[in-house]
Each structure stands twice: as C-alpha cells, then as structure tokens.
Design goal:
With 291 residues, the protein is of the alpha+beta class. The chain contains seven helices and ten strands. A hairpin with a 2-residue loop joins strand 1 and strand 2.
Amino acid sequence: MKRRSAMIPAIATLAFPAAAALAQLSTPLPSPNATVSQTVGVTRIEVAYSRPHVKGPTRKEDRVIWGKLVPYDQVWRTGANAVTKFTTDTDISVEGQKLPAGSYGLYTIPGQAEWTVIFNKQSTGNPDYKAEGDVLRVKVKPEAAPMQELFTISFPKASPDSTVMTLAWEKLSVPVNIGADTNALFLAKAKEAVAAAKPDDWRTPANAARYLSDNKYAPADAAAFLEKSLSTKETFGNVAIKASMLAAEGKKKEAAAAGQKALSLKDVDPKPSPEAVADMEKRVADWKAAK
C-alpha cells in the first residue's frame, strides 16, 4: 500500500505539465480574429474584431443574416467572439460628432432603414453591453453591396483629414464617416517636437516650417520654426524653404536672393540632390525674371 500511494505524487507531477501545455494550445476559431488600421493625417485608427461567416460553421447552406442571425433593433457586438475594439490615438469626429482619443467597444443596432453605431467604454472582454457606458451614438444609413461571405471592417476611402470606416457583411454595407482636424493636430505636435528638439537639431523645425508653408496655414508659426532652424544651421534645405516662403508672399526679389544663397550652400552637408539644385536654379531664374 505504501508503494502505491508513493506513486500518486509522481503521476500527478506528470499530469500538471500536460494540463499546462493543453491550456496554452489555441484552437482555431470559427470566426477568425482580425485587425485593421488606417492613418488619417497624424491620427492612427485601429479596429480589432472577429469575422463571422455567412455560411454556418458546420453547414454549407447560407444563413439569413439581417433580421434573423443578427436581429433588427437589438444591440449587436459588431462581430463575433468578443467585443469589437475601436482605438484612436487622437480626438476625432464620427458623423460630425466628437469622439475623444481612447479605446472603445464598437457596438451597433442594425435596422432595415437606419443603423445606430455606438462607442462604449467597455472595449475588452465579453460583450456585456451596458448603455450607461455609451460615449457616443450616431445614425448611419445601410447600403446594398456585393456579396461578402466574411464580416469585414475596412477603410475604403482615406484623405489627410478624413476616412470612411465600412462594416460589410452578406449583401449590406454600412459606411461611417470619420474626420480628424489634422492641421490643428499637426501644429500641436510640431510645437511639442520643436520645443523638445536638441540644440543642434535644425531638421525638426525646418520640417515643421515646410509642412505649414506647403499647406498654407499658421504662417507665423511657420516663420518662427524656420527662424529657429536657420539660427541653428543654414543649409541648402532650410534656406530653400525660406526662398519658397518669400515667393509665396509675392516677394520675388527677396526669394531670388534667398534661392541664390541656398545654391551657395549646395556643397555643405547635408548636400542636396542634383535634381533639387537644378530645380532651385530654375526657380531663381524665374523669380529674377518676374516683374
């Protein structure tokens, strides 16, 4: 009897590693997980969700999705398995309404003529939806679309200050318009970056000045950034920016003089490309010829 009982701990010891290994084994999900992201200017948006099929997991026939598998006028997790997680790293607008930076559970209430898109504080775990956690609700219109076997969230349209997030499944597509104030966001980030730049960093303020000048906003900030860059080190690049800014103000004579100075720095590191030099030579000639 003693020998038999002495074997029990040994058997148990062997069993525990097997159980631990089993717990670490992930099995394939009927609705696979997916992550999609989109950059809008300086804003990054990411959605982590699961993708159910139109066809049943063990059947070949199609399931009726809208109004049956996904009932109308009831809160839906907008995917499968767990909460669909929507994250934005800056403040954005959704259908014209502000949504602060953060992570949210993306829920919806499908309807035959109109959907409600919900951003809720509960962004992880089981889809235990509670209306008191809602941060934003917007109304959107569903549209007929080509057949989509797997539920898909995508960003088919994007610009520097907007994108469209589309929820598509079966023969339905639901577009959600998202906007970002990229100009204001970039200016704020530029001020932080320039303030934090090292004493010998002329590139950061030059890049900030270039962007503001090219996009024609915040001219006073652009001028201040450029002056900081020039006072740190004069290069072909930042003096060329000055020439372009003067030309944009209609000061062709001053622009030509600045352009000529930029050309005199073409052999100073960092050296410009031959194409950049040729372009500046042409622009200087044009500015000199302008009345």
